[in-house]
């Protein structure tokens, strides 16, 4: 084999090794995004598991507020059944709104606000919401890294060909200003 043949073979080997390296880094970023979404999903499951207890506690004090309680249950069921990220985000935003209505309803019932079980459930839900916010941040960071990776040159040349497509952020949408507002504490 001539020197030119060896040079061409060397260049081809380097290009193949480089392509394998880029592909593997894209796979690693996709897996980080998948794992981050699984973390969000765990927090959402804990939230969903807590809601029936919260609704039952409120039912005892505010049975005639059936519409609000049914809205919370329906929003929870929709959130559990949501198949993809976009649908899950929309359903979780609906659930957050329904929970805000539930806690606003609790303001009208001093006995409920003083109930130990309700206070404990409210505290657990606040803890889960904090963990969920951290998991969302981690997920969105992983998605940002992944999306950037597939759009950067040279990976952009073949990312789509290998099935790497942009992911959607877990965005709070229109509910963001309400969720970012610090809760007020009244004595």
Describe this structure in words.
Helices cover 76% and strands 0% of the residues. The protein is mostly helical. It has one domain: Up-down Bundle (de novo design (two linked rop proteins)). α1 runs antiparallel to α5. The protein is rod-shaped and about 90 Å long. The C terminus is likely disordered.
Our count of helices gives 6
CATH fold label: de novo design (two linked rop proteins)
Radius of gyration using CA atoms only = 24 Å
Q: What is the β-strand count?
A: 0
Mean pLDDT: 86
Order of helix and strand elements from N to C terminus: HHHHHH
The gross shape turns out to be: rod-shaped
> How many separate structural domains?
1
Per CATH, the architecture is: Up-down Bundle
CATH uppermost class: Mainly Alpha
Strand content: under 5%
Q: Give the N-to-C terminal Cα separation.
A: 88 Å
Largest beta sheet, briefly?
A: none
The CATH fourth-level homologous superfamily: LemA-like domain
Class computed from helices, strands and strand pairing: mainly alpha
Outline the low-pLDDT stretches.
178-187
How helical, in percent, are the residues?
over 70%
Summarize the entry for a quick read:
The protein is mostly helical. It contains six helices and no strands.
List the helices and strands and how they pair.
Blueprint: H1 3-61, H2 66-81, H3 85-106, H4 110-114, H5 116-151, H6 176-180
């Amino acid at each position: 084999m001539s020197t030119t043949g060896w040079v061409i073979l060397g260049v081809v080997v380097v290009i193949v090794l480089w392509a394998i390296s880029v592909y593997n880094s894209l796979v690693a970023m996709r897996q980080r995004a998948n794992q981050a979404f699984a973390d969000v999903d765990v927090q959402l499951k804990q939230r969903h598991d807590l809601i029936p207890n919260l609704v039952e506690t409120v039912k005892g004090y505010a049975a005639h507020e059936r519409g609000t309680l049914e809205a919370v249950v329906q929003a929870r069921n929709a959130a559990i059944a949501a198949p993809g990220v976009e649908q899950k985000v929309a359903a979780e935003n609906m659930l957050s709104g329904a929970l805000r209505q539930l806690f606003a309803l609790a303001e009208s019932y001093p006995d409920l606000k003083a109930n130990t079980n309700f206070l404990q459930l409210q505290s657990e839900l606040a803890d889960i919401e904090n963990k969920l916010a951290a998991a969302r941040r981690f997920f969105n960071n992983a998605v940002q890294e992944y999306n950037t990776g597939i759009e950067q040159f040279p990976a952009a040349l073949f990312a789509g060909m290998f099935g790497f497509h942009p992911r959607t952020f877990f965005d709070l949408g229109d509910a963001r200003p309400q969720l970012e507002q610090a809760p007020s504490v009244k004595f």
